[in-house]
Specification:
The protein is an alpha+beta fold and 211 residues long. It is 51% helix and 7% strand. It has a 4-stranded mixed β-sheet, with helices on one face.
Amino acid sequence: MATPIIYGTEMSTYVRTARMAFEEKPAQYELVDVSVVRGEVKQPAHLARNPFGTVPAFEHDGMKIYETSPIIRYIDQVCPGTSLTPADPRDRARMNQIISIIDYHGYPSIIGQIVIHRLLPQLVGGTDEKVIAAGTPKAQLVLKEIDRIKGGSKFLAGDQLSLADLYVAPVLFYLSLAPEASLMAPNKGLSAWWEMIQQRSSYKKTQPNLG
């Protein structure tokens, strides 16, 4: 099998999710750096891979796709190794629900409104406390709902690691570096999961170099 290629920066939560999927299998892959900070995602070379100018983009055996959800599902189905999709339909639904929560609510609030303004203010012209304050209630709800969906399970969508865990971990990594890390504290099940997931090899091997 030809080596799959992920196009994107190691700093991206979504790129890290795809990389963690490969590490969990485990399977070989190549990461080709495409910088968001330097604007490379908007250059013709990358727009040819993803016309929306985001990361990751993905290539394998002549097939080219973008958007994290289809990429990680493809990785899970094509690469041999441990399945990252629950066999139980209810757990699978929980996994899909958490993925959707991150895509539509978690990433925009936690990363887009809180983390960027706290950790990378130069990308948005400086820290805007009003934007952070506006994003905080949604971020709180996201964390509360993921905690509720997890319930008493060991992992977020059952007693086996799934794609949901790989979706949430990179987002919480950045939140943990911001003062708003305290938003996690009321969610005891999620907090316990967070301590556990940080010990996994896939999490450690994909840690971004923040300089």
